[in-house]
Design a protein that fits this description.
Layout: E1 2-7, E2 13-17, H1 22-34, H2 48-59, E3 63-65, H3 70-81, E4 87-91, H4 102-110, E5 114-117, E6 126-129, E7 136-141, H5 146-155, E8 163-168, H6 174-186, E9 191-195, E10 198-201, H7 217-229, E11 236-242, H8 253-258, E12 260-266, E13 275-285, E14 289-292, H9 300-309, E15 314-317, H10 329-340, E16 345-347, E17 351-354, H11 373-379, E18 389-392, H12 404-410, E19 414-419
Length: 422
């Protein structure tokens, strides 16, 4: 096992070029492939999740192993379903074989897709025989992962009759659905919300075009966390390649962190073009934070760690999808935060609460990451609040931010590696 020990600097003055947006890259790749495009989008993310899609589309093997990439599993399931005349097996890691995909498969089968479970019913691996699908009206729950919904939407323009998607109940992660629709329209699709719970996608082929991917607001969240947790009152981080008014749901990080003492200053640039954002301390924090992460669940780990370390009690809602991520993030957060001395409790597996209760820390063996990139990324800044912090299996960051540890070193963090047997 690899373990990194991180020691933070006293001063934070750094400029970072963030990785390209994984969310936009993955959507643009599928849409680009459906358009028959020959020129890949520019500034593609080089994270694991995107690279498995690039490899699958380029090499087109019979068996496609998407490893631990949940987004790729959902998006490729829908994509392969409409690849007329092709047959593929879609598989992944052992953890991926226990992440549910039945809702998406049922929806695709309703549209006429030929998909077979090869092992456990409702879970990968899948055998998919592509065919031309008619489309039509489809009803799915609105409280499922937005990746299921996005996967269905993206194939809508190539269905004979388009797609009318009716979402029942509460709709979660709406910004991610909006991001999908926006990216589809960038490639010429006719796709819009027709009312609060219904999306209309007309049968209108995508257009091939050149396309540039903006950088990742999710990756920015860890630098916001660093500024918030730094004891340097003049801590400043400049983040390159972000967009003011971005369609990425996690761009909400700038507003939430303004409540935790970090302000965002955007450089003036041509509208719709990437710019540089400067993060600075304000020294003004709310005494307690309540927030519903239903539209941005991937930010939850960052704010759980930040608030606790700033001694800000919190009540976070909208976390139901955390149970089916790379790990059960709710349980992982409770266990690892206890190692830092903070006792969290959950409600209905969809809320996390910290009311100030603490316990004796127990960090002898380091922070575990559970094959989850966001556990490593969100816990690394804890090193700013203690002498050092050890993180186990830190290489998981390659899933979304491959050069994160190198960026920390450039920011004068000491990152030391240790290999040992378990």
């Amino acid at each position: 096992m690899t373990q990194y020990t991180i020691t933070a600097p006293n001063r934070i003055q750094h400029t970072a070029k963030l990785p390209a947006s994984k969310s936009i890259s993955n959507r643009a790749l599928i849409i680009h492939a459906l358009s028959g495009g020959r020129i890949l989008p520019e500034n593609l993310s080089n994270c694991d999740d995107t690279e498995v899609i690039v490899s699958a589309l380029k090499e087109n093997p019979y068996e496609i192993n998407i490893k631990a990439a949940g987004t790729a599993m959902r998006f490729m399931t829908a994509y392969l379903s409409v690849k007329e005349g092709e047959e593929h097996v879609l598989t992944g890691t052992e953890r991926m074989k226990h992440r549910p995909i039945g809702i998406l498969v049922d929806a695709l089968r309703f549209l006429g897709a030929d998909i077979t479970y090869l092992e456990e019913e409702g879970y990968p691996p899948l055998r998919i025989c592509g065919r031309r699908l008619d489309g039509g009206i489809l009803e799915v729950p609105g409280n499922i992962s937005s990746q299921y919904i996005s996967a269905l939407l993206m194939i809508g323009p190539v269905l004979n009759n388009g797609l009318t998607l009716q979402l029942t109940g509460d709709v979660i992660s709406r910004p991610y659905i909006d991001l999908t629709l926006w990216t589809m329209r960038e490639f010429g699709a006719d796709a819009e919300w027709s009312d609060y719970n219904t999306i209309e996608v007309h049968s209108q082929p995508y257009h091939e075009r050149s396309y540039y991917i903006e950088n990742d607001w999710s990756g920015a969240s860890y630098w916001y966390e660093i500024v918030a947790l730094s004891k340097d009152p003049e801590a400043t981080v400049r983040l390159e390649g972000l967009m003011d008014g971005s369609k990425q749901g996690d761009s909400s990080v700038r507003y939430i962190f303004s409540l935790l003492g970090v302000k965002s200053i955007f450089e003036t640039t041509e509208q719709g073009k990437p710019t540089t954002v400067t993060l600075q301390h304000t020294g003004r924090c709310v005494p307690r934070l309540e927030y519903d992460f239903v539209n941005s669940p991937d930010l939850a780990q960052t704010f759980v760690v930040t608030c606790a370390l700033l001694n800000i009690p919190f009540h976070f809602r909208g976390l139901s999808t955390l149970k089916i991520k790379e790990t059960d993030r709710i349980e992982a957060l409770k266990k690892e935060m206890r190692k830092l001395g903070y006792v969290l409790r959950d409600v209905n597996s969809s809320e996390l609460i910290w009311d100030g209760e603490q316990c004796r820390p127990g960090l002898q063996h380091g922070i575990d990451t559970y094959e989850d990139h966001r556990m490593a990324l969100s816990f690394a800044p804890v090193s700013l609040r203690q002498d050092s912090l050890s993180i186990n299996n830190p290489q998981v960051v390659t899933k979304s931010y491959p050069y994160f540890w190198e960026d920390l070193r450039k920011a004068q963090f000491k990152v030391e590696s240790l290999e040992f047997r378990v």
